[in-house]
Structure formats: structure tokens, C-alpha cells
Write a structure and sequence with these properties.
Helicase, Ruva Protein, domain 3; protein biosynthesis; alpha+beta; 11 helices; Tetrahydropterin Synthase, Chain A; cytoplasm; elongated; 46% helix; 8 strands; translation elongation factor activity
Length: 292
Amino acid sequence: MSKVTPQLIKELREITSAGMMDCKKALEATNGVIDDAIMWLRENGLAKAAKKSDRVAAEGITVAKENAKQAIIFEVNSETDFVAQNEKFLNAINAVADVLLASNAKNTEEALKVKLNNRTVQEEMIELTSTIGEKIEFRRFEAISKDKNVVSIYNHANKRISVLLSFDGAIPKEDAYNICMHVAAMSPKYMSSNEVPEDFKKQELKVIEETTDFGNKPENVKQSMIQGKLNKRLAEVSLLEQDYVVDDKFKVGKFIESKKSKLVKMIRFEVGEGIEKVVTDFAAEVAAQLKG
């Protein structure tokens, strides 16, 4: 059996970024053969990642990036926001962004199969889960070809909100970028009120009816009040009907029209939206461990 030396451990650690003790175990299990130890770490990494698969990853990062041909936007989740600020994590995500931007992937399923350093993006997430110690999950991805459209992207400074917009027309890039920032700040759910699903409207109607004091107003006045409140609510969640924050003389839609352009696609990703987060009671957790 080959002796596992500190130099061997250091070499394996530099290649794999695995923890020191994991590198030591891998080398001991493979008689000090580096290539076999790498394989051992990967196989055990899969096992570790599987154990973490039922954890909730609701923190993380969003990224929008572009080149001359296309723009992409994606979200990668982690369990804590500490990991999302980790240099190793950020470097890995930047590398993923570069390969995805250079790829022909059009959806999340295709993006997960794109190769990075002889691994797929999916395998890279498993590797990060193993080496970082938290569940890392590639959640969603979209791509837009530039063709003849004006495409604009925006990444908020906190790395938690990214926006990707596509316009038909010759809207100036500065205006397109400002609308991206508006989308990031005002968080519209839909591009226009025509896209609002009936379920959302029914839910809002119910809230309006239950929270509005109609007094003894006649039915026609009551219905008019309900419709007015509903229209106001739909405008709040629909980008084109929102007041434009850069120039509130305009609705966003009218501003875009004034530039002889039309918004054809709006994508806004915010970290963790739609994921039910687990709230941990640390005091109860510690108390339970002490009792055990």
C-alpha cells in the first residue's frame, strides 16, 4: 500500500477542491493513486449530494449575460446566502455562465446537459454540493436570440435579481436598460394585463369584495367600484400599464411606443421566488439535541 503523504493530499486538493480529510480518505482508499482518488471523490460526492437532495435551497444567485448573438438568464440556488457570496461558488457560476452563453441551450433541460470542464452543468452542481457542503441546484434558464431585436439585460448589485428584455424596433440601448431597471425595481408579474390569468383575477376580486366597505351604495355603483379597484390592481402587476419610474408622465407601454418599439419578451428572475422556505427555530433545535 502506497504511503499517503501531505504532498499527495495537497495535490489532490488542488485538483478537486475537496476538503483535506476527504482527500486523505480518498487516497487511503485507493492506495495513493491520484486518478483513482479523483474517481473515489466523485462517487462519494454523488452520495453526499443525494443525502442533501431533500433540503430546501432557496438562496443563491441570478445571472443575466449577453454576447453578440444572444442573451441568457438563469438562477442557481443554495441553502444559505453565505454560500452565494463564497468566491469558489461565484467563480463556478461565472464559468457556468460562459459555457451556457456559448452554447445552443434554449431551456433548463438543455442547459443542464451543457459540458463544462468535462462535466455537464448538472454534474458541476453535484460537485459543488459535495465540495461546498450545501445543496446547490440549477433551478431555471432561458435564452433569447438577438436576431434583429434590441436585447437588454440587468443584474442588480445584490446578485439576487436579473432581468432580460427583448424589443422589436430601434429603442435606444440606454432606454432599454432603464426599462430593465424599472422591471427589477417594480417587480411586474406580467408584461400586460391581457396576460393576467383568470385565477389571479378571481383571487383579487375576492379580496376586493371582502375588504371594501360599500355602505348602502346601489349595486351598479358597487360593481363600478369593484371594477375600478381590479383595474388598478392589474395595472400594478402589469409592466406596460405601470407608471414609468424614470419619467412618470408615461406609462411604460406608452414610453416604449414613443420610441417606435414594442416589448416582445420580459423575463425577471429573483432568487427563491416561489420556493417555500423552511424557517428554522434554532433554540428549539438546540433544545431537542440536548434532550437527545
